[in-house]
Amino acid sequence: MIRVILIGLSLFALTACETAKGAGKDIEKAGDAIQGAATDVQENI
């Protein structure tokens, strides 16, 4: 029973890491888009 719980916790931890990694990539892409838009505005001023 303990073995099953440990395997379950390990899988949950791996899933959480992948989710955080994916969210980090999404946030980074949004930041890049904002930075690009800000650069365009500065160039047009």
Automatic annotation (TrEMBL):
Top-level taxonomic group: Bacteria
InterPro entries: Entericidin
Keywords carried by this UniProt record: Cell membrane, Lipoprotein, Membrane, Palmitate, Signal
UniProt record similarity statement: Belongs to the EcnA/EcnB lipoprotein family.
Protein name as catalogued: Entericidin A/B family lipoprotein
Annotated source species: Ruegeria haliotis
